[in-house]
Design brief:
It is a single chain. The chain has 2 domains: about 170 residues, Zn-dependent exopeptidases (Aminopeptidase, 3-Layer(aba) Sandwich), CATH 3.40.630.40; about 50 residues, no CATH class. The chain is about 45% helix and about 15% strand. It contains 9 helices and 6 strands, in the order βαβαββαβαβααααα.
Length: about 240
């Protein structure tokens, strides 16, 4: 049976990090994009909040989807000191499935963070953990008001998202498959596959120009993206 996840990246557009960090909402949604992609790649159904939602609406929407788990993605702050660092993952109670989920995600993030981390913690006061019907966890990836942590997040959007996805997959007892293993075909084979699915109409052009040192016409690349998007929407 297909597993399902409700992803809840931060909607806190007024939480602004140090330097070039921007808003918590923007950065966590970028990470959420990576998590969503990786989960879908492993046949996980993904539901997701919308940036304009209130916390109440997020929880109501999540409960209406009846997913297997709810996972919230945040970055942390220290109310002005900017000295704290590190990752922590929060759950409602220690004897909950959400705690197991939190542990699985923490293991993967702790392995890639550049500093000592803060562990898995119990936070029954958090609305998003208290009011969701399914097992839930909330990650605070690092501190966006600490200059070093903020730079680390900005420089590791992809790897952070992959680590979170690996933790979620491990919770479901699903093995992570490296995407590179799916690319073990030649350019010619890839182009012919796209041609056979009517994604491209000039295979010789793509075989010629998708080589090192060559470039693809921007207008044609845009047409390709639109065609692929159209196919995905039909699924």
């Amino acid at each position: 049976m297909q597993k399902s996840v409700y992803l809840s990246p931060s909607t806190q557009e007024t939480n602004v990090g140090i330097g070039n960090y921007g808003t918590e909402e923007k950065r966590m949604n970028q990470i959420g994009d990576v998590v969503e992609y990786e989960l879908r790649r492993h046949n996980i159904r993904v539901y997701r909040n919308k940036s304009e939602m209130t916390l109440y609406q997020v929880v109501e929407d999540s409960n209406s989807k009846d997913a297997d788990i709810h996972f919230a993605i945040h970055s942390n702050s220290t109310s002005g000191s900017g000295k704290a660092r590190g990752c922590e993952v929060l759950a409602y109670s220690q004897d909950s499935k959400g705690f197991t989920l939190a542990e699985e995600v923490y293991k993967r993030l702790e392995a890639i963070t550049p500093t000592c981390d803060r562990g898995v913690k119990i936070a029954p006061q958090l609305y998003e953990l208290r009011k969701t019907k399914m097992p839930a966890a909330l990650v605070e990836i690092a501190f966006h008001d600490n200059a070093l942590d903020a730079v680390w997040i900005l420089s590791n959007i992809e790897s952070i998202g992959v680590a979170i996805a690996k933790g979620i997959l491990s919770y479901f007892k699903i093995a992570y498959i490296n995407e590179i293993s799916n690319f073990d075909i030649s350019i010619e084979e890839a182009v012919n596959t796209l041609y056979n699915h009517s994604v491209i109409s000039a295979p010789d052009y793509w075989i010629k120009h998708t080589q090192e040192g060559e470039s693809v016409n921007g207008e044609y690349a845009g047409i390709l993206l639109k065609r692929v998007a159209r196919i995905l929407r039909r699924r």
